[in-house]
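quick one, two chains, predict together pls
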Amino acid sequence: MTAYLIRRVLALLPVMLVVLTIVFLLIHLIPGDPVSVMLGPDATLAQIQATRQSLGLDRPLYEQLFKFYGRVLRGDLGRSYFLDRPVTVALLERAEPTLVLTACALLVAVMIGVPSGIIAAAYRGSVWDRALMLGALLGVCIPGFWLSLNFIYLFAVRLGWLPAAGYTSFLVEPAAALRYMVLPAVSLGFNQSALIARISRSCMLEVLQQDYIRTARAKGLSQGATICGHAFRNALVPVITVIGITMAILIGGAVVTEIVFNIPGLGRLIVSAIMRRDYPVVQGVVLVTAAAYVLINLTVDLLYAFIDPRIRYD
Amino acid sequence: MTEAAVDGAVAGSAEAVSPLTEALRSTWLRRISRNRNVVTGALILLVLVLAALFADVISTHSPTRLFPANRLKPPSAEHYLGTDEFGRDVYSLVVHGSQISLLVGATTMLLTSLGGIVTGLLAGYYRRLDLILMRFMDGLMAFPAILLAIALMAARGPGVWNVIFALSVVYLPRTAMLIRSTVLTIRELDYVQAARALGRGDPAIAFRHILPNCLAPLLVQASFIFAYAILAEAILGFLGVGVPPYVPSWGNVIASGKNVIREAFWVSLFPGLALTLAGLSLNLLGDGLRDTLDPRLRVQ
């Protein structure tokens, strides 16, 4: 397991190097002179020169790139012009809502997806199966941000059950925080539950065709005992991978959900940074989420290898 | 050997056995046209394409002219789907929005397919290039898709072609990796070895013998990328970083509906339904094509 772990971590180094390079190049994709774009039309020539020097944009590209690597390795993501503080501080301030939203949405996705998949597989071909799989197909197709708007209209505007938008920390007011989090978490999680349901169903069906399940049934075990005691645990392995992938996708989805529900997380940070042309913040958010994405995928791979030892010897 | 494998092997050496290939191709088409998912998906897509092509004919009002006096009117005989906060007709906006969605979706699909074929063939065929190309693709895949698209739009600024550029960059690695893995499998097959023994050059083997066998998985992937791209375009528009706000696109209309959701739910409801329908058609098409073209991948 240790050798596998080292191999997997080493394999990440080139990936992170490419990620860093892409994030660095973002500034250079700006059409024309990036500094004039950042400072806007009212900037004087002297200001432009000064900013260009302070950002090191007057140096050769390779020199800028290596300096960028060095800075990021030291944990320095630059300074936000607009917020007037280091990007790392701005990111830390906004990370909590995004993490909470992602975790709650994952919980919703698993709680809807796994039981739906298992029920559909257990009653294959029945009305339940068809209805659940139709729901899963719709779940894949319905855009999450649009579903959020419809939820707001129905549950906040018409029925008045839940707040339409906003955020409170669970550490400050847990009850209010929960009320604020229900709609965002459900609308973000619903889409992903569809993928989990589809995979759970097909994994479960595969396991249910195995000989040992037939043996369990021949022994006279009930449907419930067969499914819960014998099939479920073996079907779980690929499902865990999908749950990991789902978590990574949710980080991206959270950006959009935050805008709809006015949650002050990383998503709102990046969108307002784009409007203010605050590029160091844009780079910071993208870099941090990519790093999180890579780490989650690594964890999933390791977890998978831990559960199923055959993978380690690949 | 499975039917699909026979299909693949024969399609690869097309010149030698063309009558047989013709026969197989017709069963291939017949199989696709018998699949209920493919037919339903294709029909919905056809309706959307027709709406986009004849948008000027079937829309009842100009999608860009503002009538402040008419703002937020509910659906009626005059305005089938109501009006938005600027008094624009939502039905006409939705009809014209299909043009942007389909343009972005189809162009992104084409560009990622072409880019994916070139990258995938090069990586699958030349080991040295493989290492560099695939590390780069891994790097691109390491970003959450929508965030990379947002970041690219932040750098390039709003505009249809910038959206297409951003989404093509984001979705290219998926196609490139698919083609590469298919090439790696096929290049070891006997008929490719036979072609090599007959003295065929690399380009001829790649394009004549390997590429045709990559087309089935590519077609399935392309229909899903079409769906992702349409959805991503709407998300970018919704966030205000996609096509400029004055262009009628589904994402832009949903975004303007967000501001008035309390008074006028219809503004965001109908473009969202159109978006769902487009996603449904392409997902049905993709699922159906996968079931017919690659029975091994069929979801049970």
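Confidence is low (pLDDT under 50) at residues 1-17 of chain B.
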